[in-house]
From TrEMBL:
<protein>
    <submittedName>
        <fullName>Armadillo repeat-containing protein 4</fullName>
    </submittedName>
</protein>
<feature type="compositionally biased region" description="Basic and acidic residues">
    <location>
        <begin position="386"/>
        <end position="400"/>
    </location>
</feature>
<feature type="repeat" description="ARM">
    <location>
        <begin position="912"/>
        <end position="954"/>
    </location>
</feature>
<dbReference type="InterPro" id="IPR011989">
    <property type="entry name" value="ARM-like"/>
</dbReference>
<feature type="region of interest" description="Disordered">
    <location>
        <begin position="378"/>
        <end position="422"/>
    </location>
</feature>
<dbReference type="InterPro" id="IPR016024">
    <property type="entry name" value="ARM-type_fold"/>
</dbReference>
<feature type="compositionally biased region" description="Basic and acidic residues">
    <location>
        <begin position="409"/>
        <end position="422"/>
    </location>
</feature>
<feature type="region of interest" description="Disordered">
    <location>
        <begin position="442"/>
        <end position="480"/>
    </location>
</feature>
<dbReference type="InterPro" id="IPR000225">
    <property type="entry name" value="Armadillo"/>
</dbReference>
<feature type="repeat" description="ARM">
    <location>
        <begin position="568"/>
        <end position="610"/>
    </location>
</feature>
<dbReference type="Pfam" id="PF00514">
    <property type="entry name" value="Arm"/>
</dbReference>
Length: 1075
């Protein structure tokens, strides 16, 4: 948690790559993003990269004390000192607090505290205290790390001494240290060496992380900035409708590299400085750098110098910056009549295409067909056509900024597709290619009404990434490869050629790399998708096949998928599924599989009968044949393609139901017996998607699919293994299914797959299956034989959250047995479990609290948890906003209190902890209430704590819950009331707050545990005469008499005691009345 600075040159414009890339070593001193542009101290910026690296440093430091306990105890040569934002009140156990001064209980050999906070200055002298400080800081840990880095530029000097400081050139400190270790046997020197090595290791880790980040960044260039400025200048001026009043460079001189910034600023990546005058704000002084565009400090008043320091966030380009800063800019931008960059024109070719916005008929086209080679590369610069009273399309550049969206929507139906001429009569179909209206151009408006009613109910098991992705266009025609123009010319042949020319053009188009985005967008940008989709509506099979082959390839692109759906392509492809031609069926199904990757497309397939047709493709009688004929092989391929399409469609709930109603389950079960991996992958993929529905889980069990799923866990194909494990994960909620997995030998392959830790998706599926299977105790016994618990403990660190959730869930189930709790302790699994309590993932927190709570049932484990401050972390989770986390944390606290050495004192040490747990009785969630009641039952065993919670109003809050029908809550509520009766006048208070009468009715429950807890509570309450009267009036005696003969001794004694108290009161009353 320290920092140093030194610039490292970046090749772009001699830019200084100022990035935080190290923790406490050489790399750190080389790079850090600081707000000061000069050589002053500055402050560390919280940029996305810096924040990511800061979090890595925090993660390293937080876990240091349990990963390296000996090194964590090492006392720094000098304390790390900085101004903290933490209040003294956040420090609790382990610290001595006097006024606003806080010091740690741990001292060095001279008696000096390892952590000292005076006023707002904090001094820390060991990694152990740094770890504890970060735990205390909770949500402020990022700010504390930042402050520490800013105040300690070369922390390794303070930690190990000046001999280890960051130096330029060759660093000999490690060699000197190694020599010293060889010469003497000083343990402190050895620890120093270990710490130095650990810090160098962290250094390299952060360096690699930052380099990956840099490699992903898209940076501005002088050329792109100049183009954008020139474009904006074109639309600027004094008029009301201009986007800006003025836009000027601060310097007219341009260096050979295109930069206008002085050389000493170019090394910081700065390109130029602008003065922009919007219509609605003061002039803006802007810096354009390779990292982006931001506001600088403007010109200094008495000088002509620019104040270079950054004053705003960094934006990706100038237009994005101005959109955020000037509403008028955004408003006027939408009013502009934009010109477009046309295709480069060959010297011998004249090509003019103009969209007539008034005439919906065919547009004008002029061609000089003297061009010799259709694939000849066009090298001439772009030229602009004469407007001649026509509106031209918005340029790709403007579309890329997202500012032409409103005009695009209005003009969508009058785009290039209206320019297309009909295909020759040889294609037999009356519907011509040119009528893009016949390509369902009006479908966008029709769709809105029907979709809105279904949008809310349509759910998906995947995030709708396709729906959210922004339009991406090429930056300008100067950067486009020759393939782009060649493909566009082929599309024109498709539009105007005869049948033969169309087939040749389709074949030629397939010679290009259609997986390349440039080629895909070239087809779309010139209206090729409309042509390809219209070809599907012809009667020529060759044209249909050629078109589908291209659509299948380019529909890998999310933008193309959306356009195909918008143009009604899915409806036509669904009809093709009825074709007698097997090749057409295959291609149509595969293309549907690609397009149906987003919600609207899946809905379209269902609404037009696509699910029923796709399920029909699965009916393949040739599956079991040893030597199928070519025709039968094609039938198998059709079934595979159908399964692929159903896999994509099955990601929405309504489609899952449609597949089931169409009879898809038995057909999928039949295909699951296939020996071919290419068939099994989509089949199992569909099944695991559908297994989220109860009806499918039941069907998978009854159709005996578990055996095949288990069998394919041993496949060599990792994708297939993943889907099988995922299906078992979802189905194993059912006890019978868990038994079937064990009986068919599925537990051992699952255990074996745990060793494949590189494939995270597979690991997540396998750990999920193990988690659900471990709910059955017989399976846990098998897992113990296969050493699964030890392997799971090893996966508690350095794994993605989706894996950790399942790993911890599995350990939580295994922990239900004492022998497994001991195994986890011996494998050092408790520290990483406790460390996970500091996370934010809701599912992970629910599972880890359960696991820690189960481990705490063993006194030896509880000692470790207490030493790691685990109980405090559990208690802090009671403040989590998610009820599931609150409930799980409260359940986990119960065994911690039961097995702690001095539980009462431990609970009291949590400042505000008792008030927090009492206030949770106001929750509306039954599980939270039941768990909190259980925790209060344990807390109330200590008399002093019982007095405190009584003062916090526990009695009326418990009484308020008495009228509940939930047996789980009834049981724990009755236990809490029973315990709370032990203090002062609480028995009387429960009577006054109307808690007694509802308790009597608990005795009518079918749950014997509720009977036992209620009888104990009534026995305690019956010590007050008024409560006895209330019980008697509510018929308690008759109910309790039946329980006096119970085999449960606790219930028996409590029932008898309560009746005895009521009887004694009756006798006393009778005696007083009659003497």
């Amino acid at each position: 948690m320290g920092a140093g600075v030194r610039p490292a040159l970046h090749p772009l414009c001699g830019e200084t790559a100022l990035i935080l890339v190290g923790a406490m070593g050489v790399t750190l001193t080389r790079a850090a993003q600081w707000t000061s542009a000069g050589s002053g101290p500055g402050t560390l910026e919280i940029t996305p990269l810096n924040e990511s690296l800061l979090n890595e440093i925090i993660k390293f430091t937080e876990g240091f004390h349990y990963r390296h306990p000996q090194e964590a105890a090492f006392v720094f040569r000098e304390p790390l000192e900085w101004k903290t934002r933490l209040d003294y009140s956040v420090f609790e156990s382990g610290y001595e607090i006097s006024g606003t001064t806080v010091q740690s209980e741990d001292k060095d050999k001279d008696g000096q505290p390892l952590l000292l906070l005076t006023a707002s200055t904090i001094r820390v002298r060991s990694f152990g205290e740094l770890s504890r400080l970060l735990s205390v800081a909770t949500e402020k840990k990022l700010k504390e790390a930042q402050a520490c880095l800013e105040a300690n530029r070369d922390p390794i000097v303070k930690i190990l001494g000046p001999g280890y400081g960051t130096v330029e050139g060759e660093d000999m400190s490690m060699l000197r240290l190694l020599e010293k270790v060889k010469k003497d046997d000083d343990p402190e020197t050895e620890i120093k060496m270990k710490i130095s090595l650990l810090l160098q290791q962290l250094d390299m880790q952060l360096l690699n992380s930052s380099l990956k980040h840099i490699s992903r960044e898209v940076r501005l260039t002088p050329t792109s900035v100049k183009n954008e400025v020139d474009l904006l200048k074109h639309f600027s001026g004094k008029g009301e409708d201009t986007v800006l009043e003025s836009l000027e460079y601060t310097s007219d001189y341009e260096f050979s590299n295109g930069c206008r910034a002085p050389p000493w600023r170019q090394v910081h990546g700065e390109i130029c400085y602008l003065i922009v005058k919007p219509h609605d704000t003061n002039p803006l002084f802007i810096t354009c750098s390779t990292a982006g565009v931001f506001l600088n400090g403007g010109r200094e008043k008495e000088k002509d110098d620019i104040e270079y320091e950054r004053k705003s966030d960094i934006y990706k380009d100038l237009v994005t910056f101005l959109r955020e800063r000037s509403p008028k800019f955004l408003e006027n931008m939408a009013k502009q009549e934009y010109t477009f960059f046309e295709e480069p024109v060959h010297e011998k070719q004249q090509h003019l295409e103009i969209v007539d916005t008034e005439d919906s008929g065919q547009s004008q086209k002029f061609y000089d067909c003297s061009e010799k080679n259709v694939f000849e590369k066009m090298k001439s610069p772009p030229v602009k056509g004469k407007p001649i009273d026509k509106k031209l399309e918005p340029s790709l550049k403007w579309k890329d900024t997202g500012l032409a969206g409103s005009q695009d929507a209005a003009k969508k139906d009058i785009k290039e597709e209206k320019e297309v001429r009909p295909i020759s009569h040889e294609l037999k179909k009356k519907a011509s290619i040119i009528s893009s209206g016949s390509v369902k151009a009006q479908s966008a408006t029709k769709r809105k009404v029907s979709e809105k009613s279904e949008e809310a109910s349509e759910s998906s098991s995947e995030s709708e990434e396709d729906e959210e992705q922004p339009e991406r266009h090429q930056e300008g025609n100067t950067d486009l490869p020759s393939e782009y123009w060649q493909i566009q010319k082929l599309v024109k042949y498709l539009k105007g050629g005869n049948q033969t020319a169309t087939v040749i053009a389709l074949c030629s188009m397939r010679d290009f790399n259609l997986a390349q985005e440039t080629c895909q967008l070239a087809i779309r940008d010139v209206g090729g998708l409309e042509v390809l989709i219209n070809l599907l509506d012809t009667e020529d099979v060759k044209c249909k096949i050629g078109s589908l082959k291209i659509l299948k390839e380019i529909s890998q692109n999310s933008q193309i998928r959306r356009t195909i759906a918008d143009l009604g392509g899915l409806q036509i492809m669904v009809k093709i599924l009825d074709s007698p031609d097997k090749d057409l069926k295959c291609l149509a199904a595969e293309t549907i599989a690609n397009v149906a990757k987003f919600k609207r497309a899946r809905r379209t397939v269902r609404q037009h009968g696509g699910i029923t047709r796709l399920v029909g493709l699965l009916d393949c009688v040739s599956m079991g044949l040893a030597n199928p004929t070519p025709s039968q092989t094609k039938d198998i391929e059709i079934a595979r393609c159908g399964a692929l399409a159903l896999w994509s469609c099955s990601k929405s709930t309504k489609n899952k139901e449609a597949i089931r109603k169409a009879g898809g389950i038995p057909l999928l079960a039949q295909l699951l017996k296939s020996p071919h991996v290419s068939m099994l992958t989509p089949v199992v993929g569909t099944l695991q998607e559908c297994a989220s529905e109860p009806s499918y889980r039941l069907a998978i069990k009854t159709e005996r699919m578990i055996e095949n799923l288990v069998k394919n866990l041993s496949s060599e194909n990792q994708e297939l293994q993943m889907h099988c494990a995922s299906a078992i994960f979802k189905c194993a909620e059912d006890e019978e299914t868990r038994d079937l997995v064990r009986q068919h030998g599925g537990l051992q392959p699952l255990a074996t797959l745990l060793s494949n830790s590189e494939n995270k998706e597979l690991l997540a599926a396998v750990t999920g299956a193990i988690w659900k299977c471990a709910i059955s105790r017989e399976n846990v016994t098998k897992f113990r034989e296969y050493k699964v618990i030890e392997t799971l403990v090893g996966l508690l660190t350095d794994q993605p959250e989706e894996v950790l959730v399942n790993v911890v869930g599995a350990l939580g189930e295994c922990c239900q047995e004492p022998i497994n709790r001991a195994i986890i302790r011996k494998c050092a699994g408790i520290p990483p479990l406790v460390n996970l309590l500091t996370g934010t993932n809701q599912a992970l927190l629910v599972n880890v609290t359960k696991a820690v709570g189960s481990c705490a049932a063993e006194p030896e484990n509880m000692m470790i948890i207490d030493r790691l401050d685990g109980v405090r972390l559990l208690w802090s989770l009671l403040k989590n906003p998610h009820p599931d986390v609150q409930a799980s944390a409260a359940w986990a606290i119960c065994p911690c209190i039961e097995n702690a050495k001095d539980a009462g004192e431990m609970v009291r040490s949590f400042v505000g902890g008792l008030e927090l747990i009492v206030n949770l009785l106001k929750s509306e969630h039954k599980e939270v209430l039941a768990s909190v009641c259980a925790a209060i039952t344990n807390i109330a065993k200590d008399e002093e704590n019982l007095a405190v919670i009584t003062d916090h109003g526990v009695v009326p809050l418990l009484s308020r819950l008495a009228n509940t029908n939930n047996d789980k809550l009834r049981r724990h509520l009755a236990e809490a009331i029973s315990r709370c009766c032990m203090w002062g006048s609480n028995r009387i208070a429960f009577g006054e707050t109307k808690a007694v009468a509802p308790l009597v009715h608990y005795l009518k429950s079918d749950d014997t545990a509720v009977h036992r807890a209620t009888a104990q509570a009534l026995y305690q309450l019956s010590e007050d005469p008024n409560n006895c009267i209330t019980m008697h009036e509510n018929g308690v005696v008759k109910l309790l008499l039946g329980m006096v003969g119970s085999t449960d001794e606790i219930l028996q004694e409590a029932a008898a005691g309560c009746i005895a108290n009521i009887r004694r009161l009756a006798l006393a009353t009778e005696k007083a009345k009659y003497g």
